[in-house]
Each structure stands twice: as C-alpha cells, then as structure tokens.
Amino acid sequence: MFSGLPNYCYLLLLLCLTTVCLGEDPYIYYDWTVSYIAASPLGVKQKVIGINSQFPGPILNVTTNWNVVVNVKNDLDEPMLLTWNGIQQRKDSWQDGVSGTNCPIPVGWNWTYEFQVKDQIGSFFYFPSLHFQRAAGGYGGITINNRNVIPLPFATPDGDITLFISDWFIKSHKELRQDIENGVGLGAPDGILFNGLGPYRYDNALVSGGVSYLTVNVEPGKTYRLRVHNVGVSTSLNFRIQNHNLLLVETEGSYTVQQNYTSLDIHVGQSYSFLVTMDQTASSDYYIVASPRFVNSSDLSKSVGVAVLHYSNSQGPASGPLPDPPNESDTYFSMSQARSVRWNVSAGAARPNPQGSFKYGEITVTDVFVLHNRPAELIEGKWRTTLSGISYLAPSTPLNLAQQFNIPGVFKLDFPNKMMNRPAKVDTSVINGTYKAFVEIIFQNNDTTVQNYHLDGHAFFVVGMDYGQWTENSRSTYNKWDGVARCTTQVFPGAWTAILVFLDNAGIWNLRAQNLDSWYLGQETYVNVVNPETPELPVPANTIYCGALSPLQKEQARRVNFSRAPSLTKTIKLIFIGFVVSLLGSFMR
C-alpha cells in the first residue's frame, strides 16, 4: 500500500511509529532498606528508623506523570508499610500503603511499590503507616516538579531545600504506643527536630552541649524554595526565620496566592513551600525556628527546634533571643492564618489550564457527612478514639483484597452521615462513596487539642472553619472561589472545618487523623469509591496476601535487585528498536 513512496517518507513513517510506540512517561527506580539505626537527636542515644541508613530518608525527586518504582526491604523487627502522603495513586489504591489497602511487609521481606505521580506537582512526604512507627522516623520528602511545558508561577529559585520539622520523644515508638493503649497521654515532646537533628545551642541554660544541629548554607542575594513538612507525632509547630520573610507559593500540590508571612503555623501532616530571599547583611548567622503551638505545658522553652541559616559571607554565629512566636493567648491568630491560605486560580500546575478552571463552588453537593470526634475513651475495656461514635477496627484482611475476592463480613458500608444517638462502638465501618459524587465533609473537633485530618487519593477544597458548632447556616461563610485544594487540614479545638471533595478516583481511600495518638486508637475510616464502568487497576502480581487470603501467599524468594536488571518494558523497547532499525536498513537499500 506504500509502494512508490520515496525512501525518506518510509523513514518519517517509521520514526513516527517509533515515537508513538515508545512515547511513555519516564521510570525512576529506588532500592530501599528500612532498618533501625543509632542516633542521638537530643543527645540521648536511641534507635531510630532509617532508610538506607539515612534519617530522614532519601527524597523522591520526580516530575509530573513519572512512574516511580520503590523496592522496600523490611529489616525492622515488626511488619511495616510505607504510605505516600498526598500522592493520589490514580485508580490504584493498591499502592497506598495503609492497613486497608495492603498486607504488611513481613520482617525480612521486600515489596515493590510501583505508581505514577499522575497530574500532580508539589511538596509531599512518605512515612511508615503502621504500629506508631512514624514516631521513630522512617520519613522522607517527595518533590514533584513541573513539566517543562508548564512554567512556574514565580521565577525559578536558585536552590531547593527540604526541611522536616517534628516533635520528638526520647521514649521509643513501642513505649509511646503502650502508653496511649493504657490511657497515658503523650504529654509535651522532649524536643523539636530539624531534619532529624536537635536544637542549636542558642541558650546555654536551655540547650545542652554536644547536640548536632542543622545548618542551611546559602548565598547572599539568592532566592531559595524551602519545602517544609511537619512529620511529627501530634504537635503543631510555628515556623519562622529570623529577619526573613516567608513568601508562601505552594501547599500539598496547589499553587497558592503569593503572600508574605513572618511565621506560619504548620500542623501535623501538612507541607508548605516558601520562597525566601537572602537579603540581609549577614552580620551574623540567623535562627530558623520551629516552636510548639497549642501544647498544655508550663515550660515549653526546652521544646523549641532551632537550626541555623548560614550566609557564605556571614561574619559570626547566630546569637541573642529567638524571634518571637505568636501570642499563645490569641486563639484566632492561627485560624486567621489558615483562612488566608488561598488557591492561585490563575496559575497552571500539573496541566496547562489554570487551577481555577475547576469551579468547585458551582458544583452541586450530593452527599454530606458531619464527623464528630471525641477525646480518647474506654470502649469495651480499651482506650479508643472515634469518628462519629465509631472506632475503626483494622481487619486482618485488607479492605481492598476483601472486596476484590468477595470475602463477606470483613467490613460494612454503613458509616453514618451524622452522629448517631447510641453508645460508641468498635467496628469496621466504611463510607459508601459514589463515583464522581461531590461530597461535603464537616470535621467537628470536640477534643481539647488541634486535630488534623487527611484523605488519601484526593485533594479537597478547604472552604470554611470557625469556632463553635457547625450548623447549616455556617455554609454562608464558605469560600466558594479560591479555597485551597490540599490533602491535610487542621481542625482547632472546639471548632469545625468544612471541605468539599470530588470523588473521581476509584479505590478504597483512607480518611484519618494525622495525629498519631488519635489515629492509632481508631480515629479513621475509609471511603469506598467504585467506578462501575472503569474499575480500579487489577491486583498487582506481587501482592502480599494475609488474613483470610493467607493460603494464597507463597514463601518469598530472596530479594530481587531489580535495579541491575532491565525491566520487561525496557526489553520490549530494545526488541522494537532493533526491528525498526532492520526495517530501515531494508528500505534504504
């Protein structure tokens, strides 16, 4: 059918065919071993969880739509999973790494996650999701860069710096979880860490000597993007840099309206990006500070994290008092800040069209859930936390597998829309989500501390928050234009927060408290979203089976070092390229 065409036409045709067949998004491979390592963040030797002997772990640095393959070997003394906080795992909750989606990776075993960062940009992090392990570390950053075809809504920074801020306890994660099982609260943290390191000795009376601290090296006149993640256990932290403004530009995958802050409260599980310009005289180094907020303690001066910002031309060490924190008695300061974080509706992000082209405020709400929490209480003789009077009980068979294999009795699709007039109970109750429903969720915090909530698989719009009890009249205060889209929101004590979410991602998705003590005692549920036309991706070939499906599991062979072997996809590509080259040779004779 192509006879008579000149040779260059054949060449063009084959090149086009090659481009179409090989035109997939790039893959990036990681090989990680999760194990205990020795560290002394606060000057006391402890076992922390490291990845490839690093604490914090490596940063996943990828670009929109890349495919990520992470082989995880569990060298801890208990089962574990990693979850990817904020990565939406489009139609693939099998990669989510929480108890409802995956069987734990047994001790000595490995499991390979494979997922695509589809249509996402921004700053996120990963962490171990089981057994209170995040309190021992195991976390690291996820940076998703814009594709080159979509410009940043700000000038390209001169550098990119990731900061992990977290409360820290000298007790092990096993001791901490035993405490909360026995009704003993966590109390104030022993310290605040920057990137796994203790405080700079800004005050000899408050900070002991011999503690390693973080130094951030910068060049004068340059502008850096700081990605700041609160990866802690339960403490909200106020972040600030002495004599420097923080220009907020992004949070959890959404570009924000750009505005300056002298400090910002960052709550557990939240991530923010700031542009910071090194515009000071460098007469000395400068303090970088993270201090606790909303903590009931008579002496928080010992629980302040301090790192050092060091200009290359600095004339001396940082000294003098720390920059002032917000007034703790001003209960509206933090809420006003939170309300001021707004969506940049004119900026493109993962796609060229502006973020604001999704006009969420014009969509009709189809379902409403009002979720009430309470402080920990005794239920059936054990300390538990609840959402709407239900404390989630994780079954031995993950929800995803139970649904896939039609195993009855594992969970119920009966989570209530509102608080029921009945005693609190322990149950595996799941929200029955409708595919492409537009859902309003109100979190009512009846606890005495800030609680933070996260939804896997989606970004939601934070449209309102206030003190007191939410009522239907509260909707008149909603922001229906530029409420920021994110995956973790704070709910202040005695207050409510309202979100709107479009359930367009098939799968079973974890809705949880980010505060580890609340989450560990049962303050979570799942949202089951079934697309009747295009179901979720099938069960991965390397799935680990447990619970009722344990008989399907075979003994795992020794760990495969995939990083030294070409993938099947790569092999097919090489065969195809060889085929094309041979065709070209025959046509050009």
From TrEMBL:
UniProt keywords, alphabetically: Cell membrane, Copper, Glycoprotein, GPI-anchor, Lipoprotein, Membrane, Metal-binding, Signal
Parts forming coiled coils: none
Signal peptide (residue range): 1-23
MF term (GO), any: oxidoreductase activity
GO-annotated cellular components: plasma membrane; side of membrane
Main location: membrane
Name used for this protein in its record: Monocopper oxidase-like protein SKU5
